[in-house]
Amino acid sequence: MSAEATKEDLQFQTEVSQLLQLMIHSLYSNKEIFLRELISNASDACDKLRFQALSDDSLNEGDSALKIQIDFDQEAKTVTIRDNGVGMSRDEVIDNIGTIAKSGTAEFLKNLTGDEAKDSQLIGQFGVGFYSSFIVADKVTLRTRKAGAAVDSGVEWISEGKDHYSLEAIEKEQKGTEVILHLRDDASEFLNNWQLRSLITKYSDHVPWPIEMIKEDEEGKKTEEWEQVNKASALWRLPKKDVSEDEYKEFYNLVSHDFQEPLTWTHNRVEGKLEYYSLLYIPSKAPFDLWDRDQMHGVKLYVQRVFIMDDAEHLMPRYLRFIRGVIDSNDLPLNVSREILQSNKVIDSIRSGSVKKVLGLLETMAKNEPEQYQKFWAEFGKVLKEGPGEDFANREQIAKLLRFSSTHENSEDQVVSLEDYISRMQENQKKIYFITADNYSAASNSPNLEVFRKKGIEVLLLTDRVDEWLVSNLHEFDGKSLQSVAKGQLDLDEFETEEEKKEHEQLEKDSQDLIEKIKKALEEQVEDVRVSHRLTQSPASIVLNDHDMALYMQNLMKQAGQEIPGSKPILEINPGHPVVQKLNGEGSDDKIRDWSEILLDQAILAEGGQLEDPARFVSRLNGLMMELAG
């Protein structure tokens, strides 16, 4: 096709017209992404030429220094992206820009076999990314010439983003492609040197080819000199031995926007059925949006060094949302938009492998650097406790990483692991005992701990609000079941002598009349009344059914406007306590009711519950105190 050829007007493929409308109405999440897409396409073109020139150096046309250049013209309201890569012929322009049934890159890859496919370093679908130009431009001009072709075989493609485009042969001295965007009025922000440089750094800093812009003087005027804006090296793809500790830390600051040093990191290259690189960091401090369910800044996804998206959902589970870093895949498939990942086994495999790397890193830290791990736990422990409910496959491994307060330590610090607990279990002990409460003081002072303290049985004190969720999903560890000391029927047979068992049986028989009195007085308020095996000092305690939510959590849910399934607690009494004996000696039904309700109310308060009628409790208590005072 010579430069004298007639200009043609051609219709877009139907799917392209539809795609253009989507683009114009922002298929992508924000309009600045157009630059990333066009740089990505230019990078593809350089990748192709580099590969093809290995077997035919003439394709370089004496210019093997492949690069990408970005320029802008404020008066003409244009932004230009050019490369000296492989370029396109007229037919390729029609195929790659006029249709989306195939793309230049995808077609190129199909023609490769064996090791050449691995070496080609190709990505993306050129045509689809190109259309993002129309997010910011009301007219796009593309000029291209295929490497090795005659100067007069260049092609100019022009479209206003509607249902047709023009195609004309031109002379083009330099091989490669030039895309000129005639910007819309609402996209004038991109006619700015600093803005374009910032976007290059943000999205394309690690594209392997130099990205150049014209240097400006001190007055902001353009010079004749081009300078490289991007680093053009992917740190995560370098061998670990070639990256210094300082470089790892600097890259963390770049990728996380965190000014502090990371706590630790793991750098890996995975080869086999899948090939990808990962550089994952654990921050030293929790980010401000750790509890924001909509936060999307976590692990950045790259494909062949090109930034695709920040994605905290596809690449890391919610309980590891604090992880920062990069995953760079060589063969990750993409959907029509690079913003939307296909749900497939490749992504699942990358996610699974990355999770195991992070959990392994934490295990190593916990074992070899316990003080460092405690720093991690103080920042992210509550989030990690979400893990057993989200990640069944790694539940046991996550459970090893959990830390709790305990009656063994008598400290609010969460330093006890489940392995620590098991190592201290008494002979014949079959269960891991715990209690949940709103705070450490409420947990450590619960009446339900009395018999455990007396017998020297350790109890884990769970005081984070996520703990109820945790224990509802973590039922056992290392073959030992977890048992709340404040729920269900307590069975401590393995810790009792035969004499103690007989004493309990006798006490229950002797207390039948007392139990019936209290049951009658509280029949509308409790499910049952029974003699306690838990209490040694307190007169009474509240016990819930095995699957009931702790009282303090019920209160929180109610305050949040949530409906709580109706259930009544169980009141356990200590018949030997003077208050209970006083109740047993009362002859009046009214007095028995007053004493019974006071026992119930104080037991509810001791477990972090709230009284439905606090004023009534105070009135009854004052009345009994007045009576006792004579």
Keywords:
single chain; 630 residues; nine-stranded mixed sheet; alpha+beta
Describe this structure in words.
The chain has 630 residues and is α+β, with helices and mostly antiparallel strands. The protein is built from 22 helices and 23 strands. The strands form 4 sheets. It has a 9-stranded mixed beta sheet. It has a 6-stranded mixed beta sheet with strand order 16-15-18-17-20-19. Helix 9 (345-368) crosses helix 10.
- Termini separation comes to 116 Å
Largest sheet: 9 strands, mixed
Give the amount of beta strand, in percent: 15-25%
Q: Treating each run of at least 4 consecutive H or I residues as one helix, how many helices? A: 22
Give me the count of strands.
Answer: 23
